Structures are given as C-alpha cells and as structure tokens.
Amino acid sequence: MARVTILGGGSWGIALAVLLQKNGHEICVWSALETEIDMLRKNHEHKMLPGIKLSENTEFTMDEKTAVEGRDLLVMAVASSFTRRTASRFSSFVAPGQKILNVAKGIEEHTLMTLTEIIEQEIPQADVAVMSGPSHAEEVGRGLPTTIVVGAKTKATAEYIQNLFMNEIFRVYISPDILGMELGGALKNVVALAAGIADGLGYGDNAKAALITRGITEISRLGIAMGGRFETFCGLSGIGDLIVTCASMHSRNRRAGILIGQGKTYQEAMDEVQMVVEGVYSAKAAMELAKKYQVQLPIIEQVNAILFEGKSADSAVKELMLRDKKVEVPAFPWTEE
Known about the structure:
This protein is an alpha/beta fold. It has helices spanning 11-22, 34-43, 64-68, 83-90, 115-122, 137-141, 155-165, 178-200, 205-226, 230-233, 236-247, 252-261, 266-273, 278-293, 298-308, 313-321; strands at 3-7, 26-30, 59-61, 73-76, 99-102, 127-132, 146-151, 170-175.
C-alpha cells in the first residue's frame, strides 16, 4: 500500500483517486478551494462524476504540509494554468527525491514551458513524472477499460508509478520520452478545438478524419523539431489521445469547438462548457513554438485566427482547403518523374 495525495479536487484527480483506492492505496485529496473540499467531504464524490464514490476513509485537506508530508506520491491534477502557482506553494514542503506525477496537459503561454518543466523549476528537489493518453475522467471513474503511458527520467520511477496504477481495467505503459508525451497531450487539445469547430459548422466524418490525420502530422512535426520521438506521436499519448479528444463528447475542447463553430466566442464557449478548455491556453504557445522552431502548423494557425483574431470559421476552413498543392509524404521518392 502507498500513501498518495491528489493535488487538485477536479474530476480527473478524483477519478484517479477512486482508481488508486480500488488498488488498495491510502488517498488524501488536497484543494485550494474550500467549497470543493466541503463538497467532497460531504458527498465523497465530485459533482462532475455523479455516483462515482470515494471511500469513507479518504482524507481531505487544504493544508499543504499535511498533503505532502510522508507521502509516497503526489499527483499534480490541477488545470495547466494553475500548475506553476500550485507547485510554488508546495515547493518548501516537498522532500528531496519525493515523486510528483503530473496528469494535466498544457504549455505555459509566456514561457513556452511544459508542465513538468514548470514543476521541476519550482520544485527542483522532486522526481517529476508525467501520465498521458486517451483517458476521460468519466470513463476511468466508472472503471471502463483504459490504457495510458507514464513517462519518467528513470525506469525505476516509471515502473514504480506503473505498479501503483495498473490493474485489470487500467493498463499502464512506460516511456522515457517525457517531452514528446507532454507535447502530444497539450497540442492535441488545439486540434480538438478544430475538430469541434468542424462539427459546429455541420461538417462530416471526412473532415474529422482529415483533421485528426493532418493534426497528428502537425503535432509530430513540431514535437520532433523540439526533441520528441516520432514513435511517441504514433502512440497512446499522441494519436491515441488525439482521436479520443476529437471524437468524444466527454472532451471539453471538442465541446467548446462545436460552440465556436456555431458562432460563439471562445469565452462564451468556455463559460457554457463550465470547465477549463486547455486548448485555448495552448493555442498561442503552439504558434510561438512554431516560430521558434520554424515549422508550419496550418491547422493550429487557423485555430488561433478564429480564437484571437476574429476570423470566421468558414473562411478558415476555405483557407486550409485552398492552400498550395502538396505531396502528402515528401520523403517518399517517385519511381518516375
């Protein structure tokens, strides 16, 4: 049995808490929000996951020292925009070598840092890992089969976390490619906005398939330029996560995209979804990274134009369709010219 604290009382953190309790681990949930802690103490469930119960012996706290001291693993499950603030407030309580698992997805807009890089900067003494893959909280909490990847700097840390989480309905692979995993997890949210916009415009399966396929091409193009591995973008934290986020109504990014495609602003869409839409925060960062590494991201570029420049979704699609003619895979040679 391990002692694990979930940092963040949102639906994803609670779904993982339920999973870990089923595996026999002792769970503490920390939140900075008094209303959230009160809700969890009273109901032992999150309002976004009705009927998915935490055990009666779950500990709930708003105290940082209580949350961290003597814990075998800290699971960082706050929204990406709160990662730095949360890491900073915990920094002085984390012991040298204490393991922190980041399960959020995003890129910090003003620094272009991934979330594990932020945690390592704020808590340099920690052993930081990441979990990513196609894994909606609604399904994990209900015990539906799910497969994900854990990335860590050492195999020993990756295997330790793999053993804590893995069971008959939650399969865990491990990888050393933390950067590739994080880029796949963050950038797929931007492409999922595009997929939702296409749905909102009334487009069909052909458009969705094209966005997923060309979307992973853009993600891997940037990711490889930054040092990620091509194989990672072909795996669960790349194409796997992209497919589920573009196709499922559990996806807050797709749902927000649908509303934007129907004519709402991104702020109106986020207000209606009532959850953090990570793709909105990662979209600008993706374009800054594209400039820095000199790669083309036409889909992500058009998403930015729709979100922040007032471009109509219709005109953005037309511009994508009428781009210069291309060869799909330039590396393939012609046998005849």
